[in-house]
Amino acid sequence: VLNYSLGKFHLISKLGRVEKSVEAHCGAVLAGRWNYEGTALVTVGEDGQVKIWSKSGMLRSTLAQQGTPVYSVAWGPDSEKVLYTSGKQLIIKPLQPNAKVLQWKAHDGLILKTDWNSVNDLILSAGEDCKYKVWDSYGRLLYSSQPQDYPITSIAWAVDGELFAVGSFHTLRLCDKTGWSYALEKPNTGSIFSIAWSIDGTQLAGACGNGHVIFAHVVEQRWEWKNFEVTLIKRRTMEVHNVINDAVDLLEFRDRVIKASLNYGHLVVSTSLQCYVFSTKNWNTPLIFDLKEGTVSLILQAERHFLLVDGGGLYLYSYEGRLISSPKFPGMRTDILNSQTVSLSNDTLAVKDKADEKVIYIFEALSGKPLGDGKPLTHKTEIVEIALDQKGLTNERKIAFIDKNRDLYITSVKRFGVEQKIVKIGTMVQTLAWNDTSNILCGIQDTHLTVWYYPNTVYVDKDLLPKTLYEKDVSEFSKNPQIVHFVGNQITIRRADGSLVHLNISPYPAILHEYASGSKWEDAVRLCRFVKDQTLWACLAAMAVASKGMATAEIAYASIGEIDKVQYISSIKDLPSKESRMAHILLFSGNTQEAETLLLQAGLVYQAIQVNINLYNWDRALELAVKHKTHVDTVLAYRQKFLEDFGKKETNKRFLQYAEGVSIPQN
Length: 667
Known about the structure:
This protein has 12 helices and 49 strands. It is of the alpha+beta class. The protein has a 4-stranded antiparallel beta sheet with strand order 4-5-6-7, with no helix packed on it. Helix 10 (618-627) runs antiparallel to helix 11 (632-645). WD repeats lie at residues 22-54, 104-136.
């Protein structure tokens, strides 16, 4: 679509022929945008009107009318809302009539340009007050630039939402999605009035005030992993620097590089036509295979395989270049997926749905089929970020996610049999990452970096969780720091100004994880005695209970002064049968239902009844006694003693009914 200063817009075919001219506005048409599906068009003009048009140029509706010219417009990610400017204000208006309109003052001068990204759901605005700003979709300010020398005349997101470009008088700037600036160019162009990115996000074009068109290419992206640093020095050339021995390798590609990822000992590079897989042990002989679609928008790596995301779908490849699977789910839109909404581990793939943001689809990596009974994981509020743990057994795979309220939850991905609860383990969490070699989770909570050394503790002994945490004050990192990597015992954090900070955590919890996964309990106890750290003992206690290693658990609980638990564990040891020992271990972790089921299956009805009496589950105790026609009198006796102790009368109808039929011996 081509906008025109005389109030018309032209619909133009690929070949450049004018298909249709439409009288749209009184005065100039100032901006026009297709929606993401290409099914509708929005135009704004000097007459202050916002109009929605069909693909063929028929007027569908006039969304808004106001007294001042509308200089810029953008569609919301779901094409259900429109963002437009009104003087110093930004307005988000849904297409549905009577829906709530969001309006806020965004700049101190006239707003000239705005853009809204479909992947990260963030909004950009640029104004005559010489500032550019980043907002979330609720109108909260995430970043505001310093006043520049001249008014900002153009601003635009790259398609994947990782970068945006800012144009001004003799100025072109490249910025990260959080606002800080990567690069500043000073071309002799006059003001840059409009910027358009290529679909692959590697280059952009700008319309300049001196009648020229400026082209720019993004170079010098960097990827780091352990001792390797990879830099894109030209569009088709990468430089690999090994910081240990200062060796430098140059990697040449046939076409321009679009996306790359460096992790788990492999560099995966996608160009416009091919995918290259390099091993960090040998840079000379990459594995090369052709791509189906071309424009790859995301590469995610796990230890055994990697995921490519393009416009056509999700493709899981082995590092030998073999296509393993291609998972699908209803209504899948791959163009809006990013590293926050997709997560990959050795056996599982998790994808957050865009149509319903409370839902996570979980797939088996090797087959591409939905995991377990095929039902997705559903949460009560919208989910913002997801992450799968990387190590351990498939049936113990955990997923951590942050919801809209910035609460952190953890749950098992296993979706059949006895389902584990979704448990909240943190609040005010902005960013999270799992460790690459052991199941340790880190996140930034408000102004603290928190490391959950053994998040599984919530399923073993919830009270123990606070003792298994490590916290460090990171308030000096300013607003919105992001965790980039968590490799080995080093956490890399990017501050709001773009600088990278490396933090080291204790190496001992990772060693403890290794010992526990190999059932080397004596070594684990020895390590804890050597380190003499309460946090480590608490982790060991939880790991031992999870693996039913009660002897080790007893030592660990004793070391952190949890005497009541030590006594309970030693009482479990003296129980006569294996089933009752197992049941009491389950009770210890709070799994009363499973403990009762186990006892009933083993025929230990009296123990199952006694468990419910001890937990004051009176109704269930009576129900079991009646069902199995045994020990009804015992339940009633315990109930009567309980009521007498508290000086209360029986009010429960079932107990009254059975009390009449059973005479209880007086003790």
